[in-house]
């Protein structure tokens, strides 16, 4: 659907006299549409994020706080170059991602955090 609108809009702009004003209006409309669409999508925050947190030391306070705030958490111990590393995996609703980041940063400021958007998943819950 998006591509159909894009092609239709371009054909209107470039069909006929090809005025500079029509091109500018199209470009502004396209940019504004992209901006507003992105803002709306971020506000709705539909879907899930998969977050991994890596720390140098096991932080039981962090684990307990994440779970107390309603997030499901799985922990792993990994072998780093110089010592063991601790990895925490969380699947959370996208609208709570910022909340989780702030929670982690307040307890473990040096944590390495990565957030992914899973394409699909099955089972688990």
Automatic annotation (TrEMBL):
It is found in: Cell membrane. Its main location: membrane. One of its GO terms (cellular component) is plasma membrane. It is a multi-pass membrane protein. It holds the Pfam family DUF5698. It comes from Rhizophagus irregularis. The keyword Transmembrane helix applies. Keywords: Cell membrane, Membrane, Transmembrane, Transmembrane helix. The chain crosses the membrane at residues 20-38. InterPro entries: DUF2179, DUF5698, UPF0316. Residues 73-123 form the DUF2179 domain. This is DUF2179 domain-containing protein. Residues 1-38 form the DUF5698 domain.
